[in-house]
# Entry
Amino acid sequence: MKYRRCGRSGVLLPEISLGLWHNFGGGDDRAQNAAIIGRALELGICHFDLADNYGPPPGSAEERFGDLLQHEFACHRDEMFIATKAGHLMWQGPYGDWGSRKHLIAGLNQSLRRMKLDYVDVFYHHRPDPETPIEETVEALVQIVRSGKALYVGLSKYPPALFNRACTLLAEAHVPCLLHQFRYNLLDRACETGMLPAAKDQGAGSIVFSPLAQGMLTGKYLNTATLPIGSRAERSDSIFLDAAKVAADAERVAKLQALASEAGIPLTQLALRWLLQRNGVSSVLVGARTVAQLEDCAAASGCEPLDEALMNQINELR
Ligand SMILES: NC(=O)c1ccc[n+]([C@@H]2O[C@H](COP(=O)([O-])OP(=O)(O)OC[C@H]3O[C@@H](n4cnc5c(N)ncnc54)[C@H](OP(=O)(O)O)[C@@H]3O)[C@@H](O)[C@H]2O)c1
# Structure
């Protein structure tokens, strides 16, 4: 595994990080989850990305991770860089969502209890809040760092202007934004004209999620009349990818698959290596469901760069 410096900070992150949004919930297999975390550590994937609402059900990914940390990986705590977030709906009533100081601090306290941790390495505001003043959200993040419950803070899915404002306020409080987290993959390049350059300008790192478009950029949905059993699009507990979304992108995925085949590499590798070559990307956050998938993703780190002709062909497919 190769490591990259995260913006203008002291933190190095692995080129490939592991997210627990799906696949680590209450219904997932504990032994398989333990095997994935163990293999990640062996492969040098030391950054684990969680959020209060990951599961399903919400909270269960942190509970599973906390259980595994306590019983199997406690001695590795200082080798790990652990992230969590708050800002999406987590509990009922006026304080269970968005970006108030009340929500962020209560949310982090709950996350720490679920994971049986004293602190996380990075705590994110998970999404911008159109109603809470950004000053309050930033003050909550600063308070969290000062209290020792997080070492660093990050932002997720912030539009560039708000991101810039939040970064300015954080910098004034001497708690710089470590990371911006947003979606980036061969099917969704919207960040290239806003979030990606803004993070670089602010000296923050960029960690990009859904690099395989939730599995579509592995080619697993091509050439099959039905969704593969157990795949994210087929699972009923996974509501963010379905047959309609798979069908909508099938043509573009087929073209990318053809380019990958011409280049003699799997589509998964093309998708991950392309991202790792994009200027400003600090880490690529995969959501592997099995040890084999994780190993496959990890293999994208440290490869020869894709050649210019291939990069140009990919870029022409926008
Ligand atoms: N900040 C935010 O709002 C936000 C939003 C989304 C995600 N995230 C973070 O980003 C992480 C990754 O997102 P993601 O899960 O969408 O990433 P992803 O890597 O694009 O998708 C993961 C899915 O792709 C498939 N896959 C992964 N590696 C594979 C391989 N080598 N071969 C074949 N299939 C493979 C698996 O699908 P099957 O299950 O079908 O096998 C897996 O469940 C999340 O866990 C979370 O930490 C953050």
